From TrEMBL:
This is THAP4-like heme-binding domain-containing protein. It catalyses: peroxynitrite = nitrate. SUPFAM superfamilies: Lipocalins (SSF50814). It comes from the Eukaryota. Residues 1-114 form the THAP4-like heme-binding domain. It comes from Parnassius mnemosyne. PANTHER family: PEROXYNITRITE ISOMERASE THAP4, THAP4 PROTEIN. Gene3D superfamilies: 2.40.128.20.
């Protein structure tokens, strides 16, 4: 199991914006994964997918969405995540999102560089 925390900040003011916390679980003996995530705007999701060792890639897609009764509009309907190890020190995450108003489309790309 992998514990996950992500926090984004406004690029100009530095104030906190979006937070996610969750767990990445592996189905033992398989390449199947489940990603359980809670968001600070009243949304929780379960995403499932697989790990491809040859491509060094994880692909996940939402299988369940729960939200608070007063979650802000437009409501998120589903996510797709692609996580790739580009090099030993570089990880890329591409997040696709579908809402009440928007078809599934790229929402953001983040590239993380390992610092020693």
């Amino acid at each position: 199991m992998f514990n996950y925390i992500s926090t984004s900040r406004h690029p100009e003011t530095g104030t906190p914006m979006h937070q996610e916390r969750g767990f990445l679980r592996i189905n033992p003996g398989t390449n199947q994964l489940a990603f359980i995530v809670s968001h600070n705007f009243g949304l929780s999701t379960i995403e499932e997918g697989h790990f491809d060792a040859d491509k060094k890639e994880i692909k996940l897609q939402t299988v369940n969405v729960a939200r608070t009764s007063f979650a802000k509009l437009p409501h998120v309907q589903s996510f797709k995540r692609e996580i790739r190890l580009l090099s030993p020190d570089t990880l890329e995450i591409v997040l696709f999102m579908k809402t009440d108003d928007t078809p599934m489309s790229e929402h953001l790309t983040a590239v993380y560089n390992k610092k020693l």
